Amino acid sequence: MPSTIHDTIDLTERISRISESSTMKVAADADRLRREGIDVIDFGAGEPDFPTPDNIKKAAIAAIDANFTKYTPSGGVIELKKAICDRHRQDYGTDYAPAECMVTVGGKHAIFNLIQALIGHGDEVVIPVPYWVTYKDVVNYAGGKCVFVPTDEASGFTFTADDIAPHITDKTRLLIINSPNNPSGAVLSREEFERIYQLAAKRGVRLMTDECYCRFLYDSEPFSIASMPGAKEHVVVAGSLSKTYSMTGWRIGFALAPKQIIDGMMKLQSHTTSNPTSVSQKAAIEALRGPQESVGIMLAEYRKRRDYVVTRLRAIAGVRIAEPKGAFYAYPNISVRFRDGITSAMQFSERLLADSHVAVVPGEAFGTNEHIRLSYAASMHDLERGLDRIERFISE
Ligand SMILES: Cc1ncc(COP(=O)(O)O)c(C=O)c1O
Description:
- β5 (172-177), α8 (190-202) and β6 (206-210) form a beta-alpha-beta unit.
- The strands form three sheets. Strands 2-8-7-6-5-3-4 form a seven-stranded mixed β-sheet, sandwiched between helices.
- Helices cover 40% and strands 12% of the residues.
- The termini are far apart.
- The protein is of the alpha/beta class and 396 residues long.
- It is globular.
- The protein has helices at residues 13-16, 22-35, 54-65, 78-92, 107-118, 133-142, 161-164, 190-202, 259-271, 278-289, 293-314, 345-356, 380-395, and strands at residues 41-42, 101-104, 124-128, 145-149, 172-177, 206-210, 235-240, 253-256, 329-330, 358-359, 361-362, 372-375.
- The longest helix is centred in the last third of the chain and has 22 residues, at 293-314.
- The model has no long low-confidence stretch (mean pLDDT 95).
- It binds pyridoxal-5'-phosphate.
- Pyridoxal-5'-phosphate binds next to α5.
């Protein structure tokens, strides 16, 4: 058969370096089954199940009524940049100016822009495992090389500066730290985070701190490594309003970084998304400047759910799980169920969805292959039913 032009579409080499986001794929698979009328319980999505607080929604409605519906400056309106810097100062004692701040279309976009601005061909980026899916693909897209740091499951996937040090070479340009961690819920102690920062600063490596879950800590107080004296020179902050204020769909994130980096990111953003949505920016100002009670209310609810999920998982013979110290994910080791044709977390997840109709994300997405990620940002009702199904799937 002669091939048609449609058989031979040449996509760029850089597109072949990345794959579809696994978390998005799980959501699509679960959605397909749901549309077939199947009662799917979804622990795949990393998104709060709470509505966006009313004061935030009202600010957006007021923005629409006031016709604040046009282009804004590419890096966001000045009032929002100021609100981001003020919130960060108030919460963590940092000292950023609006020129060192940029508003992006979600935290993911801040990370994308930062990595495109900082990483070139052959540059090495050090990333502890398990890691959030997107880092790897974005680094690959930029032509960089991921250098993964294994961490110890028995210690809850935490790590130390000594674990990181041997992975830093002359080519290392960036170290990515995500605490609380997605997927493991691991949290670095302030002391260890400071040691890691000192190591990075000493070796001339920039440290990107992904603060997406910074306000969701169960046993310790929120802090930002950017508050260390002199840190602004070495640290770039990727932030997001998505989880903190249950605003995933509004798509507002930000970066805090030296002005030169922000200017580089801004060039890219000005040719891609232009500005983050105008109405969302007004909502974000209210989120940051308005009452903060909703954050504590969500955290208290997540804590209850975490305790329930951990207790249930530990009651299943052979399942191991370190207690998550932050964020809203559980990352159990389910290798006890590697039998009957299941030899990987990927196969486990596919069979769990097909047979028991529970959606989870396989550990391969995060760099390990004996774990699954369950998001407990789901109702207690769904957690109870879902864990019953998981227990049956593993035990039977
Ligand atoms: C670790 C981490 N960083 C950043 C993000 C980006 O979030 P968003 O783009 O929705 O602001 C997420 C979202 O799941 C995340 O888990």
